[in-house]
Amino acid sequence: MMSMTGKRRRASARGAIVMAATIAASGSAFAQQIVVQGNTRIDAETVRSYVVGVSPEEGRRNLIASGMFSDVRVAHNGGRIVVSVRENNTINRVFFEGNKKVEKGTLESIVESKSRGPYSQATVNSDLERIREVYRRAGRGLAKVSVRTVDLPNGRVDVVYAIDEGDKTGVKEIRFVGNQVYSDGRLKDLMTLSEMNLLSFVKTSDVYDPDRLANDLDLIRRYYLKNGYADFRVASADSRFDDAAGGWIITITVEEGQQYRVGAVSVDSRIPGVDGTVLRDELRTGVGDVYNAEDVEKTLTGVTTSVARSGHPFAQVRPTGERDRATGTVALGYIVEDGPKVYIERINVRGNTRTRDYVVRRELDLTEGDAYNRVLVDRAERRLNGLGFFKKVRFSNEPGSAPDRVVVNIDVEDQPTGSFSVAGGYSTADGIIGEVSVSESNFLGRGQYVRLAGTAGQYTRGVDFSFTEPYFLGYRLAAGFDVFNKYSDQTRYSRYITDVVGGQLRLGLPITEEFGITLRYSIYNTDLKIPNTLKRPYNDCSFPIPGYTKTWDPGTIINGQNVGGLAQYPNCAYDGEASIALKEAVGSTLTSLAGVTLAYSTLDNLQLPRNGFYGELKPEYAGIGGDSKFFRVTGEARYYKELYEDVVGFVKVQGGHVLPTEGNALRVTDQFFLGPSLVRGFAPNGIGPRDVGSADARSNAIGGTTYVGASVEVQFPIWGLPRDLGLKGAVFADAGTLFGYKGSRAFDVNRDGFINGTAPGGACNFNALTIGVEPECVNVRDKATIRSSVGASILWNSPLGPIRFDYAYALSKDEGQKVFGADGTYYGKVGKDQTQAFRFSGGSRF
């Protein structure tokens, strides 16, 4: 039996060999002996082309691989080759049902089943897995995907992928193993990935993305190296989807090592004519400092650039570090030596489908024909990654056309850079407010920044447009302009409304990585109005409101004060009448202003700084045409220090001064009006000189020319709350003052047509309180009283935007000026500061 079976097998094998040899020998002539069966849409010649010249088995595999057939059989029958096929259906259209979180275009780009292509069950099965993977990356790991077909005439089918997206399944937990120096919370703060929590319905940072995780691991590594842990490494990073937990579990194992300080620093120049002691000016690392890998990189760049400028373009700067674990020090050395004379033959920019080539190339300090320098190439890679235009940036080299030539390849992957946002919030200053904005940081792939925003709220509304070209005229100069219009209702804290329309030109000059200068020119028109209606009769002493009659009761209490003894004066001055200084400013004022901003920053993070210093000085001159004539300078300095892990303290000092030029008195609108921005616990416009000729405390702020202030604050995490909620607490103390009114004090009521009372005027007597007696006079109370407060805050860096709630208690303030009647009766105080214990500000972005 076995013998007969073996004979049959040998005979079959001999037949197959003979048939294959016959087909190969006969070529196209023998193709006519190949019989094709079962084909309806695909012609026989096409089928034969897959079989001619090969063995039957290979021909069968070729036909299956073509994707046109679901089943193929090849048999030898009486000297003929019979090929029986079952054709695949043709896909008419591909549909997706139930997809809301992933766009149709994204799904169409990843499935291989295409319209007018052959239907293949194997391909469809692969498509199902691809769709599931897309949903896993989109934070929907439990999504269910199925497929069905709809039969159509002529062998056509519609393929329908039905998707049940399910609930969001993001990063359920991030675990760290091996970290002793920094807590899990601190390391999670460094990451852009976050864990799911109560806010997962509005945030996307908890969606697992392996590329984002890889970037986060690099951020963690750089953080350790920046803080002296030169032995640090990420031992492993394991990501797995846990069906039971309903999300991703990420476990990161680290080896921290010990912290090092700089034990010694040396520069060894091995190039004749290059003095190593001169290059020490470029060192960013000093003996005793905590080892900082970023400072080492900056030193390499500085020394390389300095040597290249001295005529040695091929010089290489090589860092060395000898670690002494016993003493916890590292001896840093920078060796300067001649490198191989290699030139850049060509720079290829690849993968940029949107960003223009020149936007990438301008970040390089090298071009074709220059000497190749690895340090400058590394700096260019860091710059490109910092732009935010690309998801990935990778530099690589390949040999050029000669041994001394190299080709530099820059592979990038564009990512979306535009955003549309809707913001809303509430603050005690602006009330309920909303904003709609559209921005693009890589406009038309040119690297330009464009933003258009509109704001509307209870007490403010406006629109602004900004444009910035980061490389003006081909240089690293940030030039731009702004156009804006802002309407602001100040009647809750003063008695006027402003409508400002204008624009600004900017030119930023980066001097060093920490220091920059911005030149500015602004021109804007301020239209100031004082409401005069039945609800807001703030100008009815000058312009009586028809039909609006008021009676006066000597015993009436107004604003908490018994002003009955002043009944002989018209009561229009006591229902919120604006100061005569404000009335003088009614109308349009054109301001033409040139200024410069000097800024210096060593902050470790611009949004949430923990350590570093920031300072700016802004001198400005108004008088290049226009109505305003003044010189103004303001400044601010902030110093941050992490006292303990996640406990950050900072000190802020600020000040400003404005003085009139050309012998003019300052307009009231050109002076400083301050409140909680200087000392928390005080209302907007609640601090500074006041016109005590008005009994209404909210109508008499007239501004000052000089202010100084200081704040101390400590921010800390709130115990018991998840760190990634972004909630923090703070305690603070503020102190400051505003003084020095330099505006006009006397006005000609006959000329200007406005008065604050009906009693006849005369020469202003500024030594007496003359409420309503001298209508053309501004009776100024101007005391350089130090205002101070202490308080506590709750800060929330929420996915909806930053939210802050302050409670402040005023320790010291200007208590105002006492008012006495002719008989010595005390009637209260005027001109006192206005306090505001609670202050809330917040916004949302969704």
Notes on the structure:
By secondary structure, this protein is α+β, with helices and mostly antiparallel strands. It is built from 14 helices and 37 strands. The strands form 9 sheets. A 16-stranded antiparallel beta sheet has the order 16-17-18-19-20-21-22-25-26-27-28-30-31-33-34-37, with no helix packed on it. The longest helix is centred in the N-terminal third of the chain and has 25 residues, at 2-26. The chain is globular. The N and C termini lie far apart (79 Å).
Point out poorly predicted stretches: 1-31, 551-570, 755-763, 765-775
Round the mean pLDDT to the nearest integer and report it: 82
- Measured by DSSP, the beta-strand proportion falls in 35-45%
The beta-strand count equals 37
Give the oligomer, counting copies of the same chain as homo and different chains as hetero: single chain
State the helical fraction: 10-25%
State the separation between the terminal residues, measured CA to CA.
79 Å
- Overall geometric form: globular
- Order of strands in the sheet with the most strands? 16-17-18-19-20-21-22-25-26-27-28-30-31-33-34-37
What's the helix count?
Answer: 14
